[in-house]
Amino acid sequence: MQRNAGSAGSRPCTGIYAFDFNARIASGVDPALAEGTQVWAQYFTRDSGVPSGTGLTNALTFVICD
Fold first, then answer.
1. φ/ψ of residue 60, rounded to 5
2. Alpha-carbon span 46 to 35, nearest angstrom
3. What is the CA 28 to chain-centroid distance, rounded?
4. Disulfide check for 43: which of 13, 16, 57, 65 has CB 3.0–4.6 Å away?
5. Cα dihedral sign for 6, 22, 65, 29?
6. Helix (H) or strand (E) holding 46
7. What sections of 19-66 are H helices per DSSP?
């Protein structure tokens, strides 16, 4: 799924990524996303401002709660 980071953040990195996990869970498309499940998330990025042209955001971990 491709997303645009937009430009609403603060300098030096003005992009902000967002993903609505509530909508994903409610859709039922991924039955593994159940209450109590630990999720690891990270965005792969393309950035013409860095030498490699690509990068990874800081990762985060969270648990799905009721």
1. -140, 155
2. 32
3. 19
4. 57
5. negative
6. strand 44-46
7. 21-27
User: Hey, what are 7's tokens?
Assistant: 């430009």
The pLDDT, as a whole number, for residue 3 is 64
CA-to-CA distance for 49 and 4, rounded, in angstroms?
15
Q: Are strands 38-41 and 60-63 parallel, antiparallel or unpaired?
A: antiparallel
Share of the chain above pLDDT 90, in %: 36
Report whether pLDDT(10) > 70: no
Q: Is the pLDDT of residue 17 over 60?
A: yes
Q: Return the ∠ at Cα 43 (arms to 50 and 53), rounded to 5°.
A: 20
